[in-house]
Amino acid sequence: MQINQNKLKQRLILLSFIASILLTGLKFFAYYLTSSNAILSDALESIINVIASGFAFYSIYLSAQPKDRNHPYGHGKIEFFSAGFEGALIIIASLFVIIEAVKRIMDPAPIQNLLQGSGFILFTILVNTAIGYKLLVEGKKANSLALVADGRHLMTDSISSLVLIFSVGLIMLTGYVWIDSVASLLFGIFLAYNGFLLVSKSVAGLMDAVDDALLEKVVNTLTLNKKTEWIDVHNLRVQQYGSDLHIDCHLTLPYYWELQKVHETIHNFENILKDSHTGETEIFVHADPCLYQCCYFCRIADCPVRQHAFIKDIDWNAASLVKNEKLYNEARIHIP
């Protein structure tokens, strides 16, 4: 299943790469027809689509490679770098767009053949929207930041092209040529903002920042499948590298259990987490022996070594499970 998923990701990003080359050519042809600064800005931004899609294809290929001696956690982090690279290129392109727009505002140039040029841009909008939407949907399913980033970039390109068509319509209705340069300037600012978002998310991933949505998903999986013998889970760490999910945690179990039973329980614990994720999942579980304080929230009714009566269960949540301590402090129970 993982192999098929990787092949699907590679086919999708290859489709994006080929489409970006063709659509960029169409946009430059539209600029040749019209001499519109806004259309030129859109065409220049599309060059970024080509470069970014090419790099994203390589990153997805590399992230699919199995872990090796030099990369024991796999190659999934390349997708963060790919998204950051794409974001940086978008920011650079936005600077050129803004500078050119300011020049044209100060020194306006004639515009022609707007209707014909707009027809080409409308076609690129339809293609970019279809491919971008597909990349977003499949990227979220596969937890691929590279696919999501490229899909979001294409969708952003479609939105900006729609604004471009709107500005061209205004020029045709009003005859005010300066609208073209103002639209280009706004487009450049919009590009810079989206590039900044991509770079920020990339840096967060490379720095192993907590993904709150992913952490909540893992916590919800544990809560919904909570077993009586799982006395406590703490020191939970969750990281996503490409399609690969890595989970570390401590699991508190009865101290008197034999090693075989501990092993079987941890194995079942791991399988529950793996079944909730479509990609490769690597889990490291450290087994902790229970303490007498755990009796207050331990749900094992027939425990042969119980020293205190059960008082209440503890709600598992992201804030408490990430702490490197057993959860009896979370119970707010007076322990003598």
Can you put this structure into words, describing what you see?
With 336 residues, this protein is mainly α. The mean pLDDT is 83. It folds into 2 domains: 2-206, Cation efflux protein transmembrane domain (Alpha-lytic protease prodomain-like, Up-down Bundle), CATH 1.20.1510.10; 212-329, Cation efflux protein, cytoplasmic domain (Alpha-Beta Plaits). Helix 1 (2-34) packs antiparallel against helix 4, helix 3 (78-106) packs parallel to helix 5 and helix 3 (78-106) packs antiparallel against helix 6. The longest helix is centred in the first third of the chain and has 33 residues, at 2-34. Helices cover 62% and strands 9% of the residues.
CATH superfamily membership of the largest domain? Cation efflux protein transmembrane domain
CATH top-level class of the largest domain: Mainly Alpha
**What is the molecular shape?**
elongated
Biggest sheet strand order reads 1-2-3
- Structural class per helix/strand content? mainly alpha
Strand content: 5-15%
